[in-house]
Amino acid sequence: MKTLYVKTFFIWSTSSKKLVKNERVTVEYAADLPSLRYGSAFPKLARGKATDVTSIDDERIHPFNLNNLIHAKDSLFQIIQKRGENISGITAPWVYAGMLFASFCWHVEDMYMYSINYMHKGAAKTWYCIPESHKEAFDDAIKEKHCELFIERPDLLYNIILTMNPLELLKKNIPVYRTEQQPREFIITFPKVYHAGFSHGYNISEAVNIAIPDWIPFGKLALSDYASEGFLKKGSFPFEWIIIENIKRLSEFNFSPQAKKEIAQVYIEIMQKEIKDRKAVQECYSKVAIKQFGDVTTRYDAHICSTCNNYTFLSFLSCGRCKRTGCIQHISVCDCLNVIVSMNVRFSEKNLEDFSHSVQKFLGTL
Predict the structure, then answer these.
(1) Distance between CA atoms of 68 and 63, rounded to whole angstroms?
(2) Rounded percentage of the chain residues whose pLDDT exceeds 90
(3) Which of 44, 73, 135, 159 is deepest in the core (most CB within 10 A)?
């Protein structure tokens, strides 16, 4: 492995006679290694080789092979197999090589997604988790403990570099759950759950994210939380993108009737909000030029807001003077005098309304 991330920390206690309590030690941790580049420890089916699968027990097609989770029933990432837009670490696994005391600091998953971690081999790994109901209490506790650091770096929690003794959290009435992961075991973390831990020795693990319909409310909440914090964190992908791409291919993918209903309902909410936001922009400016994307299949990450740094999937504003771009929700795109505003849209308002009517009819058949 070429990339090693060095983490330095203090050991609170140890059974080793060679280490002294609170002795400073430095360990190496190969973390966040993209399996698309370094390889996955799970076997993968070579392209065009599906005919050589002779058993459903073949590990290459096993549903718990982390490379195959995007194909699982009700997975919102089924769109990946159609569009080939793998998101490293989210839809394609990352690999982790730990050693004694190699740690991962407190964090929640991007956009409050589920995560699943599999240990291939090696020494055990201790995990600590905090229920979703106490996320805000944890935020307050760790910001109080490291208040001076947060003044300098408000985005520290998103960099996954802070730790806090679970005993300190328990004293603040924040519940902490502990478990040990052994080789050939999975750990699944639920949305909005803080987790942290450390390795007991050398081990190899692999992890990926999961997005299913019951994650949708958490995804919306994550983006709302990012906005309320001043956009210290950006979404890993546009929420609208994953919903719209699934709704366009709802009959092609393996979704339960209930999952289809939930996705369709969220799609209608997204369309109604988009139309409302566009009208708000037009009411704000005396003249707005509306331009449609040259290609409606343009990648989800092609346009980025200059203000919040988020992806603008459905539409964005642009200034003809300074060339800044921004989400239409911000309404104001720049500080230019006599600003020349264009609203760039992926789909016309008529397209959105027509498709919403089709989706509503579809809902009536479920």
Answers:
(1) 6
(2) 61
(3) 135
Q: If you ran DSSP here, which 8-state letter would residue 46 be given?
A: P
Residue 195 · residue 127 · CB < 8 Å? yes
pTM of the full predicted structure? 0.88
Distance CA 115, CA 345 (A): 33
Architecture of domain 5-212: Sandwich (2.60)
Place of tokens 């994650």: 215
Q: Which of 6-20, 95-109, 170-184 has the lowest mean pLDDT?
A: 6-20
CA atoms of 117 and 186, how far apart (whole Å): 6
Residue closest to 333 by CA, chosen among 357, 355, 304, 359: 304
Reduced to 3 DSSP states, what percent helix, strand and coil does the chain have, rounded to the nearest 5?
35, 25, 40
Find out whether 288 and 312 touch, Cβ atoms under 8 Å: no
Whether pLDDT at 51 is above 80:
no
Per-residue DSSP letter, 19:
S
- Give Cα separations from 208 to 70, 96, 115, 304, 327 (angstroms): 10, 11, 6, 25, 29
Domain boundaries, the chain: 5-212, 239-365
Could you give the percent of the chain with pLDDT greater than 70?
88
